[in-house]
Amino acid sequence: MEYKITTPCTAQDLAPLKAGDTVLLSGVVYTARDQAHKRMMEALDKGETLPFALEGSAIYYVGPTPERPGEVIGSAGPTTSGRMDAMSPRLLDLGNKIMIGKGKRDAAVKDAVVRNGAVYLAALGGAGALMAKSVQTLEVIAWPDLGCEAVRRLTVQDMPLTVVLDAHGGDLYEEGPAAYLAAR
């Protein structure tokens, strides 16, 4: 199935999604990689406010390359999501609803996805130029000293993504190979 989803999202918005579905995501998406996640954890530990509201948010694990003249963003391919696994359950418990990246996630993230009615979506690795075409606006909103890992607010239109983890416990990385082997 193909779904059009607009951020911010609720658990009800994401409930119909199943592992393997295609999502065309529109709205605001925040970028945050390893270093930004570490700073968010430090801020939370100190009782400080995060640079964006987590409730219903989408976080894309990307460190985009500099844009060329006339472009909004450079190449914007996903980074390996597993590097955020230790920090993702806390953000999900605080309201984050969509994580975007590539690669498998650990059991704690899978449990947090189900517990919070969230999803993990895969962006096409190696297709950063394709992902960049969906970005309409970009604004650095926190920690510019992190360079490409600074937190950015992106406005996206129909960003093509695939549901990997759904709110019902579905996992495309488990179900996809199993379906392939069963069909052989």
Q: Class by helix and strand content? A: alpha/beta
Distance between the termini: 23 Å
As for the CATH topology, it is: fumarase
CATH class: Alpha Beta
Provide a count of the helices: 6
Number of separate domains: 1
**Beta-strand share of residues:** 25-35%
* Known CATH architecture: Alpha-Beta Barrel
For CATH, the homologous superfamily is named as Fe-S hydro-lyase, tartrate dehydratase beta-type, catalytic domain
The main sheet orders its strands as 2-3-4-5-7
Family: Belongs to the class-I fumarase family.
InterPro entries: Fe-S_hydro-lyase_TtdB-typ_cat, Fe-S_hydroAse_TtdB_cat_sf
Keywords: Lyase
Organism: Faecalibacterium intestinale
Description of the molecule:
- The chain has 184 residues and is α/β, with parallel strands linked by helices.
- It has a single domain, classed as fumarase (Alpha-Beta Barrel), CATH 3.20.130.
- The protein is built from six helices and seven strands; from the N terminus they run E-H-E-H-E-H-E-H-E-H-E-E-H.
- It has helices at residues 11-14, 34-45, 88-93, 107-116, 128-132, 172-183; strands at 2-6, 22-31, 58-60, 98-101, 119-122, 135-142, 151-165.
- Strands 2-3-4-5-7 form a five-stranded mixed beta barrel.
- The mean pLDDT is 94.
